[in-house]
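Quick one: structure tokens for this chain, please?
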Amino acid sequence: MKNVLVTGADGFIGSHLVETLVAQGYKVRALSLYNSFNNWGWLESIKNLDRVEVVCGDVRDAKFCHKITQGIDTIFHLAALIAIPYSYDAPASYVDTNVTGTLNICQAALDNKVARVLHTSTSEVYGSALYVPIDENHKLQPQSPYSASKIAADAMAMSFYHSFKLPLTIVRPFNTYGPRQSARAVIPTIISQISKGQKVIKLGSLSPTRDFSYVQDTVDGFIAVAKSDATIGKTLNLGSNFEISVGDTVKLISEVMGHQIEIVADQERLRPEGSEVHRLFAENSLVRSLTGWKPVYFGVDGFKAGLKLTAEWFQEPENLKKYKTDIYNV
């Protein structure tokens, strides 16, 4: 795993993954989505950026994917469109990026004889839990265009393992949170509004439950999977095995930050009735048995510790000014 490519490196989880890989001594090529401003997203904020080879482009372009995978030992494929609300308005773009982009990366990896590919899935593919905790055999339920595109992307990726013996693993993170996360997600939505001094916090539904994982746990899980040949051909949940409602999460954040707040329902933030995923709770025993990985930020105490680190990051003025807390981030 000496030479590593991270797609989606300019995003939330991707930037943390790049930062950790560099700290561990790997040579990292980081893909940032091309834009005319030459902005590298959250990569601009990481330590030791001078040790990273940043390339700009788009996974939707097959020729470009072939180029950037040359000389690479391991690919962490995180590039994707992930915002669920936007997928209601622009589903075709999710197919282009998530499905075709995954096809292009897998084909390029096969052509260039890449030794390991980790494809990033999402817990959203499970839909509302039919049983808990959710293991990797749970039925897949496309309750949004986003989750449908990820189910298709997962199938495309795994087809390359079965058809061409591409050494591939599907890594399925549950709800990752932490510094740099987009305000479209519930935890940064709450923390950023409080940090801006707002007493009335706008949220969607409070009843759904989630299995929140601190970003460093997720990143460490990715790396542990990449180091284990036993994970090839497998689909693996990365979750904390701890379930909490959005409403109780709000209470914990209020406690950690020492702020009394009022919650108001914002109709704009509610998913269509049939699209809401009401319960997510991860079974993580398979990845633990194959890699030895286990979450550090586990249970109520671990969750509070992760929330504290997240809140401290958001309260730094330089970080907070990057967020538009007065609008709904789709």
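Residues 91-111 form the longest helix (21 residues).
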